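Help needed: design a sequence for this.
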């Protein structure tokens, strides 16, 4: 299918795979998409600014940003981020209409064949087919209005601004900025029974506002704005001013305050710099209100992505209900749209549409999509087809690698390492985010796909890195292993006991499969040095490990019910490390969890875990989200045979009772990512594969993390392991 992207300030059309259906989304074949002249013009301008221009426009800020990136990601990771910015494909468009061709398993309010309006950046893009969450979709009853309702999202923005104004019958309202949203605001305010004032520098827009019901219109370049409004309102000022213009200065905000009456309201819809004289606001006691996009629910992951609606009685107007109401006004011809559409282009001529946009003469531009015969999809399965197991076969020459999932960690850590492994080549990037996938495929000169099953079906791909959300790891790893691929999966290996059993069963029956989970700590150079010393000990050890993990809000993706939190997703590292250091498995697991007062804290982020190991050692993990980052993130202390070892953040190693040559100090942290990845993929090129981490230890650490998570969620407790 075709999708429009921005790259270096220009619109480009790319052929990409159609989006995948997920349980909470609908697939919509687009009929019309609306180009938001204000937002998209600003986006084009920003995307056309080079990194050098951005850096030199605010040198100190840019330098601080780069230094911060180097601190977080290292030089190679920061370079990878810069390369991504230089090659970036940016999806555009956030308002469209079309027909539903598939519905996810959790969708109940829509049927295949419904005509709908869709909203949301990253969802309702300029593309033949879009995948949109349920709460960002509303039904269109009359398909004759598909073109006009393609701007439903923009209409909802204007409507939310009017709702924030809470206009009363007979009040006066001034709209500053009579672009697309301004013209819609004029019409909506008129429906509210208000007297409308309009301000703009473009005469044709003033004329159009009068057609839509504005009684007073002014060009501030030609008229004394304050004097005119002062006399028109009986020297009182307007009750409410709604700013729908955009400005890099606070002058418009100051202007709004000057024309608004004492104890009136100023509603900020447009992108205006908040820079104004406090005295006038203070003297008039004016309320300044911000209007957030389409309405309540915007930017709330639970509402938009997971489909959880707000109670009707308590949140009357959500973004979805705003969209539905605006679409009904259009279909009832209470809002006029046709005069706001200056041009219509086929999506195949999108470049010309954006050339027209840059002329700054248009209010609204519509992209139309040629309608091919619709293939309604009753069900889309994301499972791989069942077929016989294919054993792994090492390649004769270059090891071809695909990366499934290219989020933040893959971009800054995994991909820079993979592309530098000898006799290996990154050949494919797979990610459902088409703009990210295209960008990185451009950076690394690979193919791009959005479905990991393409890897399973491609005999020319020998190995796979899986770096998707945690809950997908087991399913995708097993599918790739079943297809004869060598699989390196980001931790965790599994997020449920059921998934763990699936892995155990597979490896019991297929002992020759090549598999590794990214339990990298045991490959770190500092840990290798520690192991060389403690392997000669005479007695069990006392090991304490403190992970000062930092706070993550409960709506962070790792904390979701699907991904199961940070014990399974991060603390698993340390359980694998304990098993490596002791060469033993636990006899029992004891967990003490925080009993928080505040709901923002979770016991699974704040635990003390004690493992009684089979060799007699005692290993304790303190994992907390309560600390200060300046204290460092990871610290380990080991006590054995009259000696002590202290490790700090994989940068500093100090031995007490050991030779001075044991001590190590480095500026950079090395947690073993490069060593582990290189070992695995180098071994995958060999006919005699030696696993860098035994699969038995990967499964053991995974099981420990699942048990610890279970105990922490129940408030703590003790469980025998053997």
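Sure. Designed sequence:
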């Amino acid at each position: 299918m075709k999708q429009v992207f921005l790259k270096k300030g220009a619109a480009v059309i790319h052929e990409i795979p159609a989006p995948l259906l997920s349980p909470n989304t609908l697939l919509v074949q687009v009929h019309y998409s609306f180009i938001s002249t204000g937002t998209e013009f600003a986006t084009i301008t920003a995307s056309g600014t080079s990194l050098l221009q951005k850096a030199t426009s605010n040198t100190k800020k840019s330098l601080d940003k780069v230094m911060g990136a180097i601190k977080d990601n290292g030089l190679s990771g920061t370079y990878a981020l810069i390369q991504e910015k230089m090659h970036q494909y940016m999806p555009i468009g956030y308002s469209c209409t079309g027909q539903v061709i598939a519905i996810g398993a959790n969708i109940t309010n829509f049927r295949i064949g419904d005509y709908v309006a869709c909203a949301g950046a990253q969802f309702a893009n300029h593309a033949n087919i879009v995948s949109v969450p349920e709460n960002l979709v509303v039904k269109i009853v009359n398909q004759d209005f598909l073109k006009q309702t393609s701007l439903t999202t923009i209409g909802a923005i204007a409507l939310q601004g009017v709702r924030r104004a809470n206009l009363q019958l007979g009040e006066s309202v001034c709209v500053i900025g009579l672009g697309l949203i301004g013209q819609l605001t004029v019409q909506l305010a008129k429906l509210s029974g208000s007297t409308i004032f309009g301000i703009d520098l473009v005469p044709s827009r003033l004329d159009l506002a009068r057609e839509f019901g504005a009684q007073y219109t002014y060009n501030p370049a030609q008229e004394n704005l304050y004097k005119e409004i002062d006399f028109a309102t009986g020297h009182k000022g307007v009750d409410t001013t709604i700013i729908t213009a955009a400005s890099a200065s606070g002058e418009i905000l100051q202007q709004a305050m000057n024309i608004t009456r004492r104890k009136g309201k100023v509603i900020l819809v447009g992108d205006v710099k908040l820079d104004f004289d406090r005295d006038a606001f203070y003297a008039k006691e004016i309320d300044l209100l911000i209007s957030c996009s389409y309405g309540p629910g915007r930017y709330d992951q639970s509402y938009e992505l997971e489909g959880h609606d707000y109670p009707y009685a308590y949140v009357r107007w959500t973004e979805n209900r705003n969209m539905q109401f605006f679409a009904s006004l259009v279909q009832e011809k209470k809002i006029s749209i046709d005069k706001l559409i200056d041009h219509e282009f086929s999506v195949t001529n999108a470049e010309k549409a954006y050339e027209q946009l840059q002329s700054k003469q248009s209010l609204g531009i519509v992209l139309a999509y040629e309608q091919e015969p619709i293939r309604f999809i009753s069900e889309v399965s994301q499972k791989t087809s069942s077929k016989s197991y294919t054993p792994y076969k090492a390649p004769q020459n270059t090891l071809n690698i695909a990366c499934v999932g290219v989020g933040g960690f893959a971009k800054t850590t995994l991909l820079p390492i993979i592309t530098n492994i000898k006799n290996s080549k990154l050949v494919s990037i797979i990610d459902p985010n088409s703009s990210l996938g295209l960008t990185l495929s451009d950076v690394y000169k690979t193919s791009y796909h959005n479905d990991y099953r393409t890897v399973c079906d491609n005999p020319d791909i020998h190995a796979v890195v899986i770096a998707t959300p945690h809950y997908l790891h087991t399913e995708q790893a097993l599918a790739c292993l079943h297809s004869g691929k060598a699989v390196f999966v980001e931790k965790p290996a599994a997020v449920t006991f059921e998934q763990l059993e699936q892995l155990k069963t597979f490896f019991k029956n297929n002992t020759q499969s090549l598999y590794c989970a990214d339990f990298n700590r045991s490959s770190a150079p500092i840990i290798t040095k520690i192991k060389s010393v403690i392997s000669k000990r005479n007695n069990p050890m006392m090991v304490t490990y403190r992970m000062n993990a930092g706070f993550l809000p409960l709506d962070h993706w790792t904390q979701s019910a699907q991904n199961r939190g940070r014990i399974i997703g991060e603390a698993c590292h340390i359980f694998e490390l304990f098993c490596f250091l002791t060469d033993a498995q636990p006899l029992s697991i004891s967990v003490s969890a925080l009993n928080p007062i505040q709901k923002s804290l979770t016991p699974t982020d704040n635990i003390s875990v004690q493992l009684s190991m089979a060799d007699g050692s005692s290993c304790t993990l303190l994992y907390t989200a309560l600390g200060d980052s300046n204290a460092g993130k990871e610290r380990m202390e080991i006590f054995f045979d009259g000696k002590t070892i202290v490790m700090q953040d994989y940068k500093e190693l100090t031995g007490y009772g050991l030779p001075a040559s044991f001590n190590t100090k480095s500026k950079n942290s090395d947690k073993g990512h490069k060593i582990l990845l290189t070992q695995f993929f180098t071994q995958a090129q060999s006919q005699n594969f030696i696993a860098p981490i035994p699969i038995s230890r990967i499964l053991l650490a995974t099981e420990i993390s699942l048990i610890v998570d279970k105990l922490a969620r129940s408030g703590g407790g003790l469980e025998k392991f053997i």
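The longest strand covers residues 25-36.
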